[in-house]
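Journal club prep, shared notes

We agreed each person brings one worked example of a sequence with its structure written out as tokens. Mine is Xylose transport system permease protein XylH. I'm keeping it raw so we can talk through how to read the token line rather than staring at a rendered picture. Sequence first:
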Amino acid sequence: MNALASLQQLFTRNLRQSGIFIAFAAIVGLFAILTDGVLLNPGNLTNIILQYSYILILAIGMVIVIIGGHIDLSVGSVVALTGAVSGVLVIRGGQPWWVGVLAAVAVGLAVGAWQGFWVAYVGIPAFIVTLAGMLLFRGMTLQVLDNISLSPFPDSYKTIAGGFLNGFLGGQGYDVFTLVVAAIGVGGYAFSAYRSRRARIAYQQAVESLPLFVLKLVLIGALVMAFAYQLSRSRGLPIVLVILGALILIYTVVTTRTVFGRHVYAIGGNLNAAQLSGVKVKRVNFWIFVNMGFLASIAGVVYSSRSNGAQPAAGNMFELDAIAAGFIGGAAVTGGVGTVVGAMVGGLVMAVMSNGMQLMGVDQSIQQMIKGLVLLLAVAFDVYNKRRASTAPDDRTIKAKTPKAPKAAPADGEPVGATR
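Then the structure, token by token:
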């Protein structure tokens, strides 16, 4: 009975964690068929990475905000503001590209500290603070740019989002360097997954069988190498993909292997318990928003580089795409649940859907409706899982034994234990 319960628990957990991967594979397969294979063409795959990289960068920070039980509505405006600051310095001021990048990052950190102060130390809900920030920073963007667009950036700045690493190791019709980098990434992932599995076994936690574990690694490795091969046939390894990959690796370690990451999950899962456990809630909440400001500045630099200019309307509605990526990727609406990898897959789901519908010529209004339905279904799935988990019987429940009737009290003068 215990084995059956363990299998059921393992299946439920795997369904929650792996369901988004299955859905993503199904969506890719569907649009590959509907677009007659154009979706998976080398050039189109490269364009998907270039066009949606800044949304994925925002999604990394947003999922941490959501795990902590908050929301950030200002990231689109922060993207615009940081891109505007960089544009004024590099385009109008003639400064080197790295000066613009550093200035944008400094502004993003200042914005994050500003919002983190009001949320963490003053106690204003993040929804209100970031809603005010959305208006405030959009207005500051208009002031910085004087209500006009600035362009173009120099080639050195445009390389951030439009450059490629290729040709280092040669190759006929494909770039060997791209394949080598992908192979190293697959090897690192396999080693990390193996260590994680051994740790779970050591703590007597349920894990999938060894053949299933190996099959999962083989499938993931094959998909990554196939994707890398398609990129190598186009223009090679995009620089922005290297930036994104480094951020994914760093923040996966931060959320799973550091004290800060564990505290974020604790705060989002049960605020009162976290406070009683000695977690410095105010400090953690402050740094959650500082981190979001930092990643929004990186996204602002990437977006301005990609669009080759700084526009007052840049970043419009980006916050909704980042929030949708987090929820579709498995983050819980109440906080305490979510992963960086899940947010990336959620963002890719939105990216593939948008790109596929564009290739099919679907009207923009229909695209928005479909995205909204997908987001609604993802949150509904999370709510359904929570209800099922709350109503499921606990495996540790012990059947209650029928209590024995208490012995009658001895009569006056009768010795204790005497039989009547």
